[in-house]
Amino acid sequence: MNSICELFKIKYPVIQAGMIWNSGWRLASAASNAGGLGLLGAGSMYPEVLRTHIQKCKATTSMPFGVNVPLLYPDIDKIISIIIEEGVKIVFTSAGNPATWTKILKDQNITVVHVVSNLKFALKAQEAGVDAIVGEGFEAGGHNGREETTTLCLIPLLREKIAVPIIAAGGIGSGAAMLAAMSLGAQGVQVGSRFAASIESSAHDNFKQAIIHAKDGDTQLMLKKLAPVRLLKNKFYEEVKAAEAACANEEELKKLLGHARAKHGMFEGDMEAGELEIGQISATIHSIKSVQEIMDEIIGEYEMLVKKGFESFR
Amino acid sequence: MNSICELFKIKYPVIQAGMIWNSGWRLASAASNAGGLGLLGAGSMYPEVLRTHIQKCKATTSMPFGVNVPLLYPDIDKIISIIIEEGVKIVFTSAGNPATWTKILKDQNITVVHVVSNLKFALKAQEAGVDAIVGEGFEAGGHNGREETTTLCLIPLLREKIAVPIIAAGGIGSGAAMLAAMSLGAQGVQVGSRFAASIESSAHDNFKQAIIHAKDGDTQLMLKKLAPVRLLKNKFYEEVKAAEAACANEEELKKLLGHARAKHGMFEGDMEAGELEIGQISATIHSIKSVQEIMDEIIGEYEMLVKKGFESFR
User: How close A9 comes to chain B (CA, Å)?
Assistant: First the structure.
């Protein structure tokens, strides 16, 4: 049996990425009900808001679901307490040191997965005792690694040295890409952009429309002097680009970024001044569908390719 | 039958990338003799040097081989004349407009393939009448597209709109990656870095050693104000990085780059001052092998995975 399905007790090894401003209880419970693993994105929730989303998720699905927690979150202690109090069984950690929290979570019988973009942090996470690792490539939306290693190069690199199951993330929005990731040695996939553009995503419809109209080259990794983040090109992106071309320093970029731009863009729908985080694969997303339809398409294409098989040359 | 094997009359749909300073007649004829398609890299050859390499290639293999021609090459007319005079049957064009040369080559019954990094140029190349398209992703070594689209995202994007066969390039150095590319809809793969580190590569041994010792994050796409190029990190890279951090303009970067740095590094073995072009996949290349061994490994792994098949979830 597939190790990711076994680990999470799910039907399909497809994780819906926990994304800020996109993945509330509607998206997470829909992904879990469709046979994958839904994740709440705690990164854009105050602790008590997260508690409400966990409770609604429990009320709307009987299937396993989890929470994605950026470890650099200021209220991290409260977030972890709520996760434990509410009996969440799966936590994906990202953006921080897994050594601090993995043991605390595992002592509560919580399955822990850490998201990495390079081998060094994958080894650290494995040492910290995580149950699986998400390897996220350069093409992914939102925050991203400094090495800029793509999914196609990252997964084989992790596979060489990592013993725990690997979940591939970045550039995966179809059954064909799922099979590609499995070919490279991943046991599961994490899908972000495709679910950000789903009916159940909590993103503003303006953002969903922007995703399905994105073309080739419409995203770029920016703000590398702060924390690299893949942005959809808009007025704010142009301002960042101009500032970076003029050699703006960290302080100036922080000032330009300001406060709450991601919420303003993705959640409130300001397509000009908002910070819009999405992956390169958005260029091949052409319509907003339900989570069930998206899951059916991904699994349907994967199964079709697996059944068809590949030509032998010997 | 596989359309790339049919097009080139080869056994395996594996193209050895035509790379400057790495792919002379020894590498190209070895790749063709091993059942793939060998390509001479004309980009680092004076016209009469190319003629010699074509003649030696003809003398050392009876199998099909081709020439990679950067269309921006100053001596492009002479290069094309020599290719026609010497009866070369396959030409891969890159770095320039395929409209100018495709018809001239096709009128001589030459099979023409164009290398692209985005959909726009793929459509132009198809319109110009090319027989196949190489889609090269961000992770590839050397010169690279401004969109920074990775192979995992580029191939599905091309597959949607392009009718001619697609060859995936960038991040492919194993049978697993070959199968991943085929899953995405490519009919063949182009392998660069892996063959740059082969015994038959014309690169200096210092460069081959540098490739097999490269780690995660040891390459980066630089010189974006000139033409983006993926470099192995060394002293020259540090100089470029410092200049770019100090907001150097195009003129200053050109001056810093100077003349013949690629030759100086890859061919003459200066690992400090040389320009070293290699792909991200170098992090998973650990030894210098013969072309035959590399081909056996790639095809062997591909066949093993195809035979083993993939788990069904329905």
Answer: 13
